Amino acid sequence: MCELDNLFTNNRQWTEKTLEEDPTFFNKLSQQQAPEYLWIGCSDSRVPANEIVGLLPGELFVHRNVANAVIHTDMNCQSVMQYAVEYLKVKHIIVCGHYGCGGVKAAMENKRLGLIDNWLRHLRDVYQKHNEALLSIEDEGQRWDRLCELNVIEQVYNVCHSTTVQAAWDRGQAVSVHAWIYSIQDGLLRDLKATVTCQDEIADAYRIAMASKRL
After folding, report:
1. Using 50, 70 and 90 to split pLDDT, how confident is the model at 85?
2. 0.85 cut: is pTM over it?
3. CA angle at 117 for the pair 113 and 121, rounded to the nearest 5°
4. Can you tell me the distance from the alpha carbon of 37 to that of 44, in angstroms, rounded to the nearest whole number?
5. Is position 92 annotated as part of the catalytic site?
6. Quick one: how many helices (H) and strands (E) in the chain?
7. How far is it, in rounded angstroms, from Cα 183 to Cα 83?
8. Long-range own/partner contacts, residues 24-30 (CB < 8 A, 24 or more apart)
9. What is the pLDDT of residue 188?
10. Strands across the sheet with 189-191, in order?
11. Each residue of 116-148: pLDDT tens digit?
12. At residue 32, what are phi and psi to the nearest 5 degrees?
């Protein structure tokens, strides 16, 4: 028996259950997708985007990578944003990190991990940028949590300065960018109060979010 046969079994059971609840589900899903939301999240298997917000397939456009980073040279992430904004016409871009993020933890530690160090370099820059504030937090767990939050806010800043979002705002397209964080321990999302809806709001939103205490 193939080691992955159970996944095919799960798939058939899911399909049958879905059709029992809605016989037209897959027919509707096969039509053009029209999500209102782009989710940029972490690859962590404990953070299933659709399930967290209770949306069905087709209702949430998703991009995930290690530690939910938005890097201007990452053509994967940048292409996803362009497609979502220019072609799918999403109205909201949600950057969602999570407490207990392994990528963020690795960025805090001075260890050589191999190829991933090139990716973590961007997170380590965030850590160095906020080093003084983070070191003032004595509890290591709380410091880790705060860096998870700061990383989300910094990535929202990067989204707002992307060519895709800047161009959307220039042509008057309504796109809001949000900073959220998820707790694996209780399953709840928290708003980091860094929502930006236009160019003029970026600086104030960033300042307010950075000054806010942990929720």
Report:
1. very high
2. yes
3. 145
4. 20
5. no
6. 10, 5
7. 29
8. 28/58, 29/57, 29/58
9. 97
10. 60-65, 37-42, 92-98, 176-182, 189-191
11. 999 999 999 999 999 999 999 999 999 999 999
12. -55, 130
- Any catalytic annotation for residue 101? yes
Measured distance CA(116)–CA(157) in Å, rounded:
23
Given a contact cutoff of 8 angstroms between Cβ atoms, the answer to whether 39 and 96 are in contact is yes
148 catalytically annotated: no
Of 44, 77, 145, 146, which residue is the catalytic one? Answer: 44
- Is 44 one of the annotated active-site residues of the chain? yes
> What is the band of 213 on the pLDDT scale with cuts at 50, 70, 90?
low
Catalytic residue among 5, 12, 46, 171: 46
CA distances from 108 to 64, 115, 141, 186, 187 (A): 21, 17, 11, 24, 24
Contact 97, 151 (CB under 8 A): yes
Report, in this order, helix, strand and coil percent for the chain, each rounded to 5: 50, 15, 35
C-alpha span between 114 and 133 (Å, rounded) = 28
